[in-house]
Amino acid sequence: MKITVLTLFPEMYDGFLNSSIIKRIIDKGLAEIKVVNIRDYSFDKHRHVDDTPYGGGAGMLMKVDVVHAALLDNISNDYTYAILTSPKARPLKQEDLERLSKLDEFVIICGHYEGIDYRIEKYVDEKVSIGDYVLTGGELPSMVIIDGILRLLDEGISSESLKEESYTDGLLEYPQYTRPVEYNGDKVPEVLQNGNHKEIRRYNLKMALKETMLNRPDLLDKRELSEEERQLISEIINEI
Ligand code: ADE
């Protein structure tokens, strides 16, 4: 997979691309990430990339001609998928990351200042928000998108933990523990110590349901519950 990021702040990606799992995935050749400075596409000698908005209003807008030139120079053909980070979009979900992880190549345009001239929207395939709040720019959102996609490509992660995610699909993750077996009086649940896979699976599903009921009940409303899940939920309600 090749991902190109168009940004005014390329230096923000240094730590991100050179750390931990992301670095490993890139080093393994599973993904190539190219970071491009939009300022290199400015047309004037002062390298301006922004201007005041027509009709007045606070702040500056990124210029459509500069951003479009950067985009055109970084797509290999008309079919290269183009994503624009923007708070004015539907918030990103895990299923979006799964869909995007199947693309061979895409470009992410990071907005900055008060945004980009509206006419840029004609040249993008999708706008992505990472949540209902406003950040100073699209750099952190682009890293969120890249991180969420690259972990799906990672061979180390894909096998076991992705399988786990699919059986508790649409639920929050169940609580997990590591040594010591007791900390400040809190013990690791017995069932997780005894190694009975069937019981562990059932217990973890029950705890995932409980976490979801307590923290994101809205997710349960959308889910078609299996008979086993219904039973586990009544157990949880009886225990509360
Ligand atoms: N740019 C500023 N805020 C943003 C958000 N929440 N998501 C995506 N891009 C943004």
What does this structure look like?
With 240 residues, the chain is of the alpha/beta class. The chain folds into two domains: 2-159, SPOUT methyltransferase, trefoil knot domain (Alpha/beta knot, 3-Layer(aba) Sandwich), CATH 3.40.1280; 164-239, tRNA(m1g37)methyltransferase, domain 2 (Trp Operon Repressor, Chain A). It contains eleven helices and nine strands. It has helices at 14-17, 20-27, 64-73, 94-100, 139-153, 155-158, 160-167, 190-193, 197-215, 217-221, 227-239, and strands at residues 2-7, 32-37, 50-51, 61-62, 81-85, 105-110, 126-128, 182-183, 186-187. Helix 9 packs across helix 11 (227-239). The model has no long low-confidence stretch (mean pLDDT 94).
In short:
The protein is 40% helix and 14% strand.
CATH class of the largest domain: Alpha Beta
Share of helix among residues?
40-55%
Q: Flag low-confidence runs.
A: none
Distance between the termini: 47 Å
What is the molecular shape? elongated
User: What class, by secondary structure content?
Assistant: alpha/beta
The whole-angstrom Rg is: 23 Å
Distinct compounds present: adenine
Tally of individual helices: 11
**Architecture of the largest domain in CATH?**
3-Layer(aba) Sandwich
**Overall pLDDT:** 94
The name CATH uses for the topology of the largest domain is Alpha/beta knot
- What kind of assembly state do the chains in view correspond to? single chain
Structurally, the number of domains stands at 2
Q: Output the helix-strand order.
A: EHHEEEHEHEEHHHEEHHHH
Largest sheet: 5 strands, parallel
- Portion in strands: 5-15%
Name the CATH superfamily classification of the largest domain: SPOUT methyltransferase, trefoil knot domain
What's the number of extended β-strand segments? 9
